[in-house]
Structures are given as C-alpha cells and as structure tokens.
Amino acid sequence: MTARTPDAEPLLTPAEVATMFRVDPKTVTRWAKAGKLTSIRTLGGHRRYREQEVRALLNGIPPQREG
C-alpha cells in the first residue's frame, strides 16, 4: 500500500477502470495508447488512471486536455 496525502488525486488500476466500464483490462490499456484516456506510469511501470477523468468519461463528458 502507498501512503496518500489528503490532497493526492485518487488513481485507479486498469482492473478497476475495466470493472467500471465492464470491459477487459487490456481494452483500458488500448484506450490509453489511443489517447482516449490519460495514464500515469508508476515507478514500476504500471499504468494508473485519474479517477476524476475516468468518471467523467463514464458519464459521457468529453475529456479536457491540458494545454
């Protein structure tokens, strides 16, 4: 387990995102590679996804790109 500070943004694993969308975790990885979903890499190379962005996508709200 990692310690989170109170202001840390919640991150989800590919399996958690896949459960929310009812798809395979590999589909979530494909979405990230296609740019449909922003992924963050952990020090170990694993992908994590911002909960706020995932929930917005789930609700049909188009993602806002930082720029």
UniProtKB/TrEMBL annotation:
Location of the HTH merR-type domain: 11-67
Any one biological process term the GO annotation gives: regulation of DNA-templated transcription
A Gene Ontology molecular function term of the record: DNA binding
Xref: NCBIfam families: excise (TIGR01764), HTH_BldC (NF033787)
Identification of the protein by name: DNA binding domain protein, excisionase family
The species this protein was found in: Catenulispora acidiphila (strain DSM 44928 / JCM 14897 / NBRC 102108 / NRRL B-24433 / ID139908)
